[in-house]
Amino acid sequence: MERRRYALDELINKRINEVLKGKQDAFEEIVILFQHRLYHVCYRMLNNKQEAEDIAQEAFVRAYINIHTFDQKRKFSTWIFRIATNLCIDRIRKKKPDYHLDAEVPGTEGLTMYSQIAAAGDLPEEQIEKMEAQERIRYEIGRLPDKYRSVIILRYFEELPLQEIGDILELPLGTVKTRVHRGREALRKQMGTM
Amino acid sequence: MNTCPEKIIDYMHAYLDEDIRPEEERELQEHLANCSECKEIMDGLEESISFLKSATQIKAPAGFVDGVIARLPKEKSQVGAQR
């Protein structure tokens, strides 16, 4: 795993050097490599597909524009995740504070799933349970206070070590630990009341 | 209100972060074996985590990469062309 990661970092640095020489195609390869992870984090942060796509794309654009500032001794994933989470946090701050408790926005996953269930009628129970679980995850994550949500997403969806989460969010390790603890505590309490 | 020592809760989180010393873990396990209230908290934390881990990986939509490329500034490629 470590070895693979190392090889990946080398490949990325190679591509970055090509981008620095003006080859835009090399950047496309970087986007292909990271698109799903970046989109997923943005989606979990924002709980909205359109916004996640917009913000994740914007993160790549900013990375491209600022690629000369990236220190190749560091991990590219940390750098691009930092750009993306900062953009997500800005976006969340611009919203109404009660946004996450709001009902589904038309066209998003939740509504589609419910309408699918209604239309299909007699789906196997385990399938319905699975769908509900995914919807429930969205809901529970959305209910978390912002500062816990970001650490919990990086910890449990991206499965990143605490130190790396600190590097991404530019927080000291102690603060990351505290937020992960409180985030878990908040989740436990949320889930216990349902 | 839980009247158990606060450090037990800290140990639970340290355990979940795999950041616990063996003697602390022993103390935690002993406590959990004897305290149903704390055991319930620990179970709740572990359930929340496994619940999160059951989330499906969501992929970027089709056309995502092309969308990024379309949004890139044009100037950069001109710099390349000047080489």
UniProtKB/TrEMBL annotation, chain A:
Q: Name any one Pfam family assigned in the record.
A: Sigma70_r4_2
Protein's UniProt keywords contain Transport: no
InterPro entries attached to this UniProt entry: RNA_pol_sigma-70-like (IPR039425), RNA_pol_sigma-70_dom (IPR014284), RNA_pol_sigma-W_bacilli (IPR014294), RNA_pol_sigma70_ECF_CS (IPR000838), RNA_pol_sigma70_r2 (IPR007627), RNA_pol_sigma70_r4_t2 (IPR013249), RNA_pol_sigma_r2 (IPR013325), RNA_pol_sigma_r3/r4-like (IPR013324)
Q: Tell me the ranges covered by the RNA polymerase sigma factor 70 region 4 type domain, including all copies.
A: 135-187
Q: Which residues form the RNA polymerase sigma-70 region domain?
A: 34-96
Q: Which SUPFAM superfamilies match?
A: Sigma2 domain of RNA polymerase sigma factors, Sigma3 and sigma4 domains of RNA polymerase sigma factors
- Gene Ontology MF: a single term: sigma factor activity
Signal sequence, start to end: none
What Gene Ontology terms for biological process does this UniProt record contain?
A: DNA-templated transcription initiation; response to stress
Keywords, A to Z? Answer: DNA-binding, Sigma factor, Transcription, Transcription regulation
Q: Which NCBIfam families match?
A: PRK09641.1, sigma70-ECF, SigW_bacill
Family as reported in the entry's similarity comment: Belongs to the sigma-70 factor family. ECF subfamily.
User: Which protein are we looking at?
Assistant: RNA polymerase sigma factor
Q: Which organism is it from?
A: Filibacter tadaridae
The record's gene field reads sigW_4
